[in-house]
Amino acid sequence: MAQKLDDTKLLFRAVIMGPPGSGKGTISERIARGFGLQHLSSGDFLRENIASNTEAGVLAKTYIEKGLLVPDHVMTRLLLPRLEEMTCHSWLLDGFPRTLAQAEALNSSCELDLVISLNIPLETLKERLSHRWIHQASGRVYNMCFNPPRVQGVDDITGEPLIQQDDDKPEALVARLRHYKDVAKPVIDVYKAKGILHTFSDTDTDRIWPYISSLLSAKIPTDIADAQRASTH
Ligand SMILES: Nc1ncnc2c1ncn2[C@@H]1O[C@H](COP(=O)(O)OP(=O)(O)OP(=O)(O)O)[C@@H](O)[C@H]1O
Ligand SMILES: Nc1nc2c(ncn2[C@@H]2O[C@H](COP(=O)(O)OP(=O)(O)O)[C@@H](O)[C@H]2O)c(=O)[nH]1
């Protein structure tokens, strides 16, 4: 059950997990818009830290540039204080935790209500990522078929050029996916054992979304979702 802070306020804390290209970012945006949960993306947070040259950002950059995960102690030192600032908000974490050590650190700092795990076929991931273009500074994601930018090759908000990440090329993806599976399995097992894991499998986000939406509607009372939406917009 959502954690009760006082008589009028309930908080809801969720995590979304899935391999690269599984739709975490896309679904997180829909959840944020529809249910008022604050979307906290570890990738976006790292990019903000890199852009503002914080000590952790400078360190994280050296790993990201090599295609490596940022070490657990750097991630937890960055993310946990951010979560502690959000004691009055309901949130959805995307991209964290990625490892068992991160899950354990998160566990000792707060109680999660729900974990969404996306289980998408490899061929679908390859196809999607081959069409994924991003606006590097903000992390905004487009897909040339599914959600194209208004003007081809250009970010809708800033008008800056979009790029395709080397990591999203099919040859890099297989290795990334294998790595994701190895690292995520123990995390998924922890959440399964806690009874808070919900797994969704399909090739289309639009087919998965109604199930996620009804799950959240059942778990988050309407008045809480309305209050959260009002406080985040
Ligand atoms: N929880 C984390 N632990 C370690 N490194 C992380 C974590 N979250 C993000 N990173 C680092 O930041 C980079 C960018 O993260 P981001 O989630 O935006 O993109 P990604 O890894 O390409 O994932 P996806 O394709 O699933 O969106 C990652 O490749 C990784 O190096
Ligand atoms: N064709 C298609 N593309 C999708 C679908 N869902 C998401 N995408 C696109 O696939 C890519 C990966 O989605 P994203 O949300 O970035 O996944 P993440 O890596 O898990 O955060 C993006 O370019 C999305 O726009 C879908 O159902 N069909």
TrEMBL record:
Sorted UniProt keywords: Acetylation, ATP-binding, GTP-binding, Kinase, Mitochondrion, Nucleotide-binding, Transferase
Keyword Metal-binding assigned: no
Compartments where located: Mitochondrion matrix
Annotated region described as NMPbind, given as residue ranges: 41-70
Adenylate kinase active site lid domain location: 132-167
Amino acids binding a ribonucleoside 5'-triphosphate: 21-26, 132, 141-142, 205
One Pfam family named in its UniProt record: ADK_lid
Entry binding sites for AMP: 42, 47, 68-70, 95-98, 102, 176
Gene Ontology CC terms, in alphabetical order: mitochondrial matrix
GO MF term set: AMP kinase activity; ATP binding; CMP kinase activity; dAMP kinase activity; dCMP kinase activity; GTP binding; nucleoside diphosphate kinase activity; nucleoside triphosphate adenylate kinase activity
Region described as LID: spans on this chain: 131-168
Statement: the UniProt record of this protein carries the keyword Transferase: yes
InterPro entries in the record: Adenyl_kin_sub (IPR006259), Adenylat/UMP-CMP_kin (IPR000850), Adenylat_kinase_CS (IPR033690), Adenylate_kinase_lid-dom (IPR007862), ADK_active_lid_dom_sf (IPR036193), AK3/Ak4_mitochondrial (IPR028586), AK4_mitochondrial (IPR028585), P-loop_NTPase (IPR027417)
Catalytic activity: UDP + ATP = UTP + ADP; dGDP + ATP = dGTP + ADP; GTP + UDP = UTP + GDP; CDP + ATP = CTP + ADP
GO BP, one annotated term: GTP metabolic process
Catalytic class of the enzyme: transferase
Enzyme Commission number(s) from the entry: 2.7.4.10, 2.7.4.6
UniProt xrefs under HAMAP family: Adenylate_kinase_Adk (MF_00235), Adenylate_kinase_AK3 (MF_03169), Adenylate_kinase_AK4 (MF_03170)
Family recorded in the similarity comment: Belongs to the adenylate kinase family. AK3 subfamily.
Protein role: Involved in maintaining the homeostasis of cellular nucleotides by catalyzing the interconversion of nucleoside phosphates. Efficiently phosphorylates AMP and dAMP using ATP as phosphate donor, but phosphorylates only AMP when using GTP as phosphate donor. Also displays broad nucleoside diphosphate kinase activity.
Quaternary structure annotation from Swiss-Prot or TrEMBL: Monomer.
Comment block on domains: Consists of three domains, a large central CORE domain and two small peripheral domains, NMPbind and LID, which undergo movements during catalysis. The LID domain closes over the site of phosphoryl transfer upon GTP/ATP binding. Assembling and dissambling the active center during each catalytic cycle provides an effective means to prevent GTP/ATP hydrolysis.
Record protein name field: Adenylate kinase 4, mitochondrial
Species the sequence originates in: Astyanax mexicanus (Blind cave fish)
Lineage, broadest ranks: Eukaryota, Metazoa, Chordata, Craniata, Vertebrata
